[in-house]
Amino acid sequence: MEKYVIGLDIGTTSAKAVLFRKNGLVIAESESAYSVNHPQPSWVEQDPIIIEKAAISAIATVIKKGNAMKEQVCAIGLSTAMHSLICINDKHDPLSPSIIWADGRSVEQASKLRLQTDIYLKTGTPIHPMSPLCKLVWMKENDYQPYKEADMFVSIKEFLLLRWFGEAVVDYSVASATGLFNIHTFDWEDDILEIAGVRREQLSRPVAPTAICQGLPKEIANEMGLKEDTPFVLGGSDGPLANLGIGAIEPGDVAITVGTSGAIRQMASKPRTDEKQEIFCYGVTDDLWIMGGPTNNGGIVFQWMRDVLGEKEVELALSQGGNAYDLLTKLASTVSPGSNGLLFLPFLNGERAPYWDANARGSFIGLTLAHKKEHMIRAGLEGVVYSLYSVGEALERLAGEPVNLFASGGFARSPLWLQMVADIFGHPVQVPESHQSSAWGAAWFALLAVEEVSSLEAIKESIPMKQTIEPNRVSHDVYQELYGTYRQLYAALKPHFFALANFQRNS
User: Fold this and answer.
1) Are residues 440 and 494 in the same domain?
2) How many domains does the chain have?
3) Rounded to whole angstroms, how far apart are CA atoms 269 and 288?
4) How far apart are CA 208 and CA 368, in angstroms?
5) Radius of gyration of the chain measured on its C-alpha atoms
6) Which residues span the domain enclosing 132?
7) CA nearest 258: which of 356, 378, 375, 385?
8) Are residues 439 and 374 part of one domain?
9) How far apart are CA 134 and CA 435, in angstroms?
10) Least reliable range by pLDDT among 176-185, 227-236, 454-463, 474-483
11) Are 55 and 223 in contact (CB under 8 A)?
């Protein structure tokens, strides 16, 4: 009987379950969406109970779609987005929503904490409102009632593990992303816990990514379509798992991921941080770290352009059963690289790396009467890649020059976006068959945990690759010329971003 493995990826907007063969071939995929709530300006929250139901549904659906028997599922690996924070009681019920990475309520606290560079040097987590550390300090300073009543503070993955298995454990990479975890000692940092007003017993026990939870309640196992003793393997956060799932685990292997947000990352054999605080450095295993930087603004920029500029394309897609994004991409492809001198700073949701500035704002620069909708759309897509390129410059300073570029995430389905990456970076871009690299990385850790595979490195032999996108040197030269201007715009506009952000928060 053939054995299968499931990668469960809990993202910002959906839970995705992917049923894999051991060689990396996808048998079936399932996705259960959920909403993101904005109860106040800059607050970004989700309902953890709805996410739990979505995760259960995704697993059950993918097993049915793949016509798999429960006995064939040898393990499930877990991947989740970083930086979520939930206050829970001793019965593992949520006292607060899940406050996610995009939440910006702790801007003031982050600005003060950022002056304490020792925090970053110990944790590798840049000081930014995304960080649970900053969220906890905000809760403490604002007498947030769920904070005062909480028995524990957990991420969405820990929440699910507590609900399903009653185990308070957290993998190294999720723990690293809290800003409370020392990446040199692989333990919670007492000095920082004191700043957050948190006790050790209110946090989960850090464990390796191959740690296993077993013993699903019968009702949940039946709902999922699994055996009660199916091993659930902790895996990691979506970033390092995307690198693993795409095979970017050697020095010089750089992974670029764009989903709702985006990131560029490289694995390292030792942690590296410096006082510039431009990139993150998180623990993955006892001897492996992930370095890189996230952008707040990936696919969310394209979504905004669809909503604001794509009314005609949305109507056409609805009437003809097509996809509005495909129509907008087709329109953007009619414009030459560089969008006729139009630049877009894609900071619609503030920005993380390399600036770590929640006050940053989006801007079109260079608009003229000659520019049309197609120029604005293309400039928006190019702006996201410019942003990733600027993070790549900071990463290169600490991790070395890129040798191989790998693309994953939803944007890897867009030929235009992939060509932009190849052209702006000036490197070939390798693209796998499956764009669910985080799910495959989680699944591989699961296979390793149940001894179905021998090593992390062996995954390189089990990643079906789809294509390699070669850079266009003429386009690369155009982009390099424009990038010089793009790179200077943030510094020039930063004081104005601050003023506008204050106005927006107070209006």
Assistant:
1) no
2) 2
3) 5
4) 54
5) 22
6) 4-247+434-467
7) 385
8) no
9) 32
10) 454-463
11) no
Do the domain assignments include residue 289?
no
Both tokens assigned to 257: 């991921």
CA-to-CA dists, residue 42 to 106, 155, 317, 335, 439, angstroms: 9, 20, 31, 34, 29
Tokens of 175: 């723990």
Does a structural domain hold residue 124?
yes
Angle between helices 415-425 and 373-399 (to 10 degrees): 50
C-alpha 35/C-alpha 13 separation (Å) is: 6
- Structural domain includes residue 425: yes
Alpha carbons 347 and 26: distance in angstroms, whole number: 35
Question: Whole-angstrom Cα distance, residue 415 to residue 69?
Answer: 36
- Say if residue 154 is in the same domain as residue 170: yes
In DSSP notation, 412-442 reads GG-HHHHHHHHHHHTS-EEEES-S-HHHHHH
Q: Write down the pTM of the prediction.
A: 0.88
Cis peptide before 354 (omega within 30 of 0): yes
- Per residue in 340-383, pLDDT (tens digit) is 999 999 999 899 899 989 899 999 999 999 999 999 999 999 99
> Burial of 304 by CB count in 10 Å (0-12 exposed, 13-18 middle, 19+ buried)?
middle
Unique residue bearing structure tokens 């990733």: 388
Q: Does pLDDT of 464 surpass 90?
A: no
Q: What's the token pair of residue 146?
A: 């769920």
DSSP secondary structure letters along 353-405: TTT-BTT---EEES--TT--HHHHHHHHHHHHHHHHHHHHHHHHHHH---SEE
- What type of residue is 306? R
Q: Assess whether 388 and 413 both reside in one domain.
A: yes
